[in-house]
Design brief:
four-stranded antiparallel sheet, mainly beta, 1 helix, about 45% strand, about 130 residues, seven-stranded mixed sheet
């Protein structure tokens, strides 16, 4: 499985960004794919994920109502629309997927080590 993120940038507080994750090589049609972030000096945090089976989504409380995860099946791409960005959203954002045991989205956000494959990450900086 290959995951390639793009879209990271520097933005002012209150601004918006859209991250993209181009995915390929899935062994099956059933998987969960999502976004995990890591700020300097902090643990990784599950942000949002989406199921390939039914498109159901899960979000961390810290981004609920501000971030939206979506997918384009035809392009094999997952997006993270980030609105009302705050300085505390500054982090490297990774795309990650669970393809073998396909755990629930809620579990994956709470235990990000359960993701099987990871992208290289894209930097998001929110600063005035």
């Amino acid at each position: 499985v290959q995951l390639v993120e793009s879209g990271g940038d520097s933005v002012q507080p209150g601004g918006s960004l859209r991250l993209s994750c181009a995915a390929s090589g899935f062994p099956t049609d059933y998987y969960v794919i999502g976004w995990v972030r890591q700020a300097p000096g902090k643990d990784r945090e599950g942000v949002a994920c989406i199921s390939s089976a039914d498109g159901s989504t899960n979000y961390a409380d810290s981004v609920l109502g501000r971030f939206t995860i979506s997918r384009d099946k035809a392009k094999n791409t997952v997006y993270l629309q980030m609105n009302s960005l705050k300085p505390e959203d500054t982090a490297v954002y990774y795309c990650a997927t669970d393809v073998y045991d396909v755990r629930t989205g809620a579990l994956l956000l709470a235990h990000v080590d359960e993701f099987d494959f990871w992208g290289q990450g894209t930097q998001v900086t929110v600063s005035s």
